[in-house]
């Protein structure tokens, strides 16, 4: 499917489904506290990437659903040790309220190379009996999902991340897991003399490679090495998590790296439509947040309004000798960048998102929205 056809499809969908109004209680007042929180994380989804994706798909600026969310701020993404973060430190700051060194997962550096684990927001939710879920189009052990439930010195330690996934410090661990990395899981659990099927079954999960598995009640882990349809998987996950009267926390990551611009921009459109759909079904007691862990070196450098941007990009890319870095429409420096990223919010507690702030503040936003206090 081309970028142009994606844009046409989504534009038609937008005509059929207007953005939901701000939720209200029966007495007309907005809910005071959230019962549920859904955190959408666009990995490398900086402002330039969102801007380019919207124009590529819809041929007009500020055309994403994300860009219509009522509360918006700009989040600093620096790590404890570097101005330009990686996903490990970036997501750890959001999930724990603490900046840490690049490469570390929800832990702080300590003396002699040791680490100090820091409780994540998902662990707060587990401790209080909420249901929890992690959905990603990246490996389930990768930095962003791992920051929700693991505490390791290096994001490369996939064996320890898998072990901690199934031996939670609080509650019974993540209730629904969907991501890639099935082959990685096979290799990792083999070192312990077992298989992913056996290990997840012992931890109380139904295990498989089909996201439809989530539609059945109970805990589920879906690991596969191929892409899957994101919206049905997320909607099914919400349907299961919402059964808990105490509420739920769900983190959804979608990779938006634009080292291959077509892939990254397509993923922006996928997540944007996902957020649109979820906003219509999540309920008035759900805080919905979108942000990125860091930005990326993409810039839209040209383009005319008198022709579809996607066609102009494709034509420029097809010219002899053209490269991503020298495309006349979009240029890419293949690296993370350090500028602020957008944070957008809707629902109870969303009014806390405004102005310029550190990425660690998003942890406090979620905590306050639920009416919880910080416990280190």
TrEMBL record:
Zn(2+) binds at residues 43, 257, 293-294, 336. GO terms for molecular function: alkaline phosphatase activity; metal ion binding. Keywords: Magnesium, Metal-binding, Phosphoprotein, Signal, Zinc. Binds 1 Mg(2+) ion. Binds 2 Zn(2+) ions. The keyword Transcription regulation does not apply. Its cofactor is Mg(2+); Zn(2+). The active site is at 87 (phosphoserine intermediate). SMART domains: alkPPc. Residues 1-23 form the signal peptide. It holds the Pfam family Alk_phosphatase. It comes from the Bacteria. Mg(2+) binds at residues 43, 142, 144, 253. Belongs to the alkaline phosphatase family. This is Alkaline phosphatase.
């Amino acid at each position: 499917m081309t970028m142009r056809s994606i844009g046409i499809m989504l534009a038609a969908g937008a005509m059929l489904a207007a953005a939901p109004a701000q939720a209200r209680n029966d007495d007309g007042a907005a809910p005071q506290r959230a019962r549920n929180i859904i955190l959408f994380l666009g990995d490398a989804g900086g402002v330039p990437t969102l801007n380019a994706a919207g124009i590529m798909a819809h041929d007009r600026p500020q055309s994403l659903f994300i860009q219509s969310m009522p509360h918006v701020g700009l989040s600093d993404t620096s790590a404890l040790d570097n101005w330009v973060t990686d996903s490990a430190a970036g997501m750890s700051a959001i999930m724990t309220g603490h900046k840490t060194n690049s490469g570390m997962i929800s832990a702080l550096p300590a003396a002699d190379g040791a680490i100090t684990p820091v409780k994540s927001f998902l662990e707060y939710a587990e401790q209080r009996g909420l249901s929890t879920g992690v959905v990603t189009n990246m490996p389930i052990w990768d930095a962003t999902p791992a920051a929700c439930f693991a505490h390791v010195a290096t994001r490369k330690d996939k064996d320890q991340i898998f072990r901690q996934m199934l031996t939670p410090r609080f509650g019974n661990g993540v209730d629904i897991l969907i991501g890639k990395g099935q082959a990685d899981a096979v290799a990792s659990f083999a070192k312990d003399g077992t298989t992913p099927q056996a290990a997840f079954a012992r931890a109380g999960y139904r295990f498989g490679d089909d996201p439809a598995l989530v539609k059945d009640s109970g805990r589920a882990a879906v690991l596969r090495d191929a892409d899957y349809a994101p919206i049905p998987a997320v909607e099914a996950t919400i349907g299961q998590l919402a059964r808990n009267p105490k509420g739920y926390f769900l983190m959804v990551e979608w990779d938006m790296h634009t080292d291959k611009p077509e892939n990254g921009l397509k993923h922006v459109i996928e997540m944007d439509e996902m957020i649109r759909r979820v906003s219509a079904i999540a309920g008035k007691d759900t805080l919905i947040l979108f942000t990125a862990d860091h930005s990326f070196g993409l810039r839209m450098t040209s383009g005319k309004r008198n022709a579809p941007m996607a066609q102009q990009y494709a034509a420029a890319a097809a010219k002899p000798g053209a490269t991503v870095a020298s495309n006349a429409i979009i240029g890419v420096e293949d690296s993370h960048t350090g500028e602020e990223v957008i944070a957008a919010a809707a629902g109870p507690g969303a009014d806390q998102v405004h102005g310029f702030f550190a990425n660690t503040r998003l942890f406090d936003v979620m905590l306050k929205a639920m009416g919880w206090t910080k416990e280190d």
